[in-house]
Design goal:
The complex is a heterodimer of chains A (416) and B (117). Chain A has 416 residues and is α+β, with helices and mostly antiparallel strands. Chain A is 57% helix and 8% strand. Chain B starts with 6 loop residues before the first strand and ends with a helix. The chains are: A alpha+beta (416), B alpha/beta (117).
Chain lengths: 416, 117
Amino acid sequence: MIKLEMRKMLHTIAALTDLGNEINSSKDFDEVIRTSLHTCLGTLAIPKGAIARYSAKPRQLKIVAAKGLAGVVGQKIELGVDEVAKIAARTRPIKLTAERNGLAHFVRRNQEMFNKLRAHLAVPMIVQGELIGVIYLSEKLSGEAFSDDDLTIINTIARHIGLAFYNQRLIVSLKRRAEENRRLYKEMRQVYHDVVRAFGSAIDLKDAYTKGHSDRVARYSEAIAREMGLSGEELENIGVAGYLHDIGKITVDRAIINNPRPLTEREFKELNKHAVTGYEILANIRHPWQEIAYMTKCHHEKVDGTGYPQGLRGDEIPLGSRIVTLADSFDAMMTDRPYRVRLPLEKALNDVERNTNSQFDARVVTAFCRLLLKELNGASRERIIIPMIGLKFDRAQIVSQLEAIISQFEEISLAV
Amino acid sequence: MNGMEVKAKLVEGTAILYPGAYLNQLRGEVIEHRCQALLDQGVRRLVINFAETELINSIGISILLGVIETVNAANGTLLISNLNESNRELFEMLGLLSHLCIEETEERALAKFHSCA
């Protein structure tokens, strides 16, 4: 037979182990507290008890778990400032029935509630000097008085449960902060995109003929990129590059941009600087996506190496730039310019076809044609390009033309 | 309920429950619910047979205290049988023995039920 003291010690150690497992479990917190109360009561065979959580605003203890007591969960016990301090200063359980417990007024004021709770002991849960809550316990089933050892065990259990509350509060606070940060980040991104769009509009205002150009290039670019299977930040990245591709034009003389006559060599040189100027402007900004500045720089590069400013070839040109190049050129063809009226759709597609593998990337061209075909066939719910191409075209002829371009370049782009 | 099964049988109006090897929260809650359901059905004589029970943890004790109170409140009688030495010592240490009728075997519990009640 194991000695009684040893038996008590083993039972207490097992109870503390169970309590530790419970507190560290991933169960619902209310369930953790309910089970922790069971552990506390079962350790000393106490039939009734409750756990109250302290809140500073308003100063009150709210019953969050109870056992053997009906209708007490949710009940509140109001506390005065000095009473909070007095309870928080206690290092041992408070015998509510004792006359000189230092909280006579508090006990008298709440006698009815303590009767409901059958409360004999109030065990403060203190963490880092802060009152976290109180465990109320009835007498033991045996009717024996709580021994000093019992009070020590109860105190230890209360510290554990108090820590569980404290940690849960930290977790809730961290979750709230994380949620707030997510919200702020979302808002910041929205502001960022609004600013980018505003920049796009500002660029377009410089040229009477290009109103809405940046917005359309951005939307075409995103749609083509999506058709090519890109998603997430990569897609956003290309959209922003579409908005900002002409930002360098803000330093180009308005007279050159709006010149209705063919440009002189000097004027061309001046105009063509906008790619590098745009890069210089954007490279100084801490973008969420670093490639945007470089994509802007490369939007006049051609896959055959004859573009500017660096004369890059094929895959040396960022994919985003190759997409923006086509979106930019198509929109230019489909809008009136100082030096010509807009091209018919059939003619624009002929130009795209003729310049594939010289100016334009074949993979981008086939994706663009697939996209337009889907919009014409009604296979795509979104209509990104159609609103800009007007109604003056032979639909069957355009469908046939698109299918021919796709079949001509799809093999090449797949082979590449 | 938690999906845990606890064996039980009804012998001439007396319900006998078998907590299994480990009376913990899961099994304790099942016993609690089964007892409540039996009381609701009008059963007033219950036996908990601890023959297979090697361990009872503090949560199991707490739930058992709740069962004792529930049965008493319904004017029922609860008998405990087949306690092993270790569990008997635990009950003794916690002062439970004076609040429970305990019999050596299930058969004796059934036979002596009325005298204890």
